[in-house]
Amino acid sequence: MSIFDGMRINASGLTLERFKLDTISTNIANVNTTRTENGEGPYIKQQVEFEESLRTQTSGFTGDVNTSSAGVRVTGVTADEENIKMVFEPEHPDADEFGYVAYPNVDMADEMVEMMTAMRTYDANVTAMNNNKELLKRALEIGK
Amino acid sequence: MDYKNISLLNRALDATNLRQETVSSNIANVNTPGYKAKRVEFESVLQQAMNGTGLRKTNERHFGITSHNDVTAKVKAQEGNRVAENGNNVAIDTEMAELAANSIHYQALVSQTSAQYNMLRSVLR
Amino acid sequence: MSGMNGINQLYSNALSEINGTTGANQKTGVVKGENDPFSNVFSNALQSLENKQVESTQAVEALVDGTADDLHTVMIKTTEAQLSLEVAVQFRNRALEAYNEIKNMQF
Predict the structure, then answer these.
(1) How far B47 CA lies from chain C's nearest CA (Å)?
(2) Which of the four pLDDT bands, split at 50, 70 and 90, describes residue C2?
(3) Any chain C CB within 8 A of the CB of A142?
(4) pLDDT digits (tens, 9 = 90+) for B4-40
(5) In principle, which of A7, A96, B86, C84 could form an S-S bond with C52, CB 3.0–4.6 Å?
(6) Helix, strand or coil for residue A56?
């Protein structure tokens, strides 16, 4: 626990939400992409995985082990291959021998909802950080 | 009356100033290809110097870090951030938080320094 | 906070001494003065001032090397040290004033 931990925790939240927004943008941009860079299959929806980030400190004097929060951290990005949409379009250049084209498993409504959630969470983190900042500024006025 | 507190605060103000410049340059280079975010290392070195685990000076021509006067802030490249496609690893939110935190830290140090001077002054009055 | 209490105690001691020397009521100020001479009172006050200064120095060090838990504690400790010092200076001034007054008395 140190003076600016609160702000750093919120900053980790901001970074996570921004990364989520980036990922959602990629998903939306590729909602109709039937071919990936390596030439195979449709685009697969990506999702950010994250977890609570904890920091353990061992006191040099007493040997006590302290666990405090360090916010959140990204653990990785997963691609979920379920629900790939097969559409019958024989004249499509990426159609298979039966005339079916594999479309990405990106659901526009889902992405929109996730985007709203990420935006609101980002706002909340900004508010929390500003409050933290004001609190510290008030503390500076002690003794004036 | 020694001026240990004031000189310590001076060191810290120098480091905070350097950190402000570093964060500013990180923010300015948020889109520069290949740029790596920079961090100022000061507190950890100072802690070692103050609790006696710093570098011992065994030769006149060596640098030793045994008192807070030997501690200087160093700029290091940040590791472990997400690297974008253009090789840039600056996280703008983290930098903004650092900027705000650093400016408050600077204000705190300034008010502590002026408190130290005021104490000296009040004895003289 | 104990330092502040020390100064409070110092005030009440000084008050009771003054009351004792006026001899208005039952308070045996002279006896108390023997147990607790003015120099003791003064050195106690100086000791509590010194404690405050040490606490504030530690708080400043914690602020500088990043081990401080919160900002308000640092600010409060420094403010207390500042106030204690002011009180001590004022106390010295008053004591000097009193001494000068007694010195200039016409017998």
Answers:
(1) 6
(2) low
(3) yes
(4) 888 889 999 999 999 999 999 999 998 888 888 999 9
(5) C84
(6) strand
Cβ under 8 Å to B: A residues 68-97: 74
Q: What is the rounded CA–CA span in Å between residue B89 and residue B33?
A: 9
Q: What are phi and psi of B88, to 5 degrees?
A: -95, 135
* Cβ pair A67, A5 in contact under 8 A: no
For the stretch C3-40, pLDDT in tens is: 556 666 666 665 565 555 544 444 444 445 456 777 88
Q: Does C71 touch chain A (CB under 8 A)?
A: yes
Structure tokens given for B27: 């923010």
Among B92, B104, B115, beta carbon nearest to A137: B104
Q: For residue A49, is pLDDT > 50?
A: yes
Percentage of chain C beyond pLDDT 90 is 40
CA distance A82 to A105: 7
- Asked if the model's pLDDT at residue C99 lies above 90, the reply is yes
Q: Determine, for residues A74 and B82 on separate chains, whether the beta-carbon distance falls below 8 Å.
A: yes
Residue pair B48/B65 in contact (Cβ under 8 Å)? The answer is yes
**A94 near B65, Cβ under 8 Å?**
no
CA distance B104 to chain C (A): 10
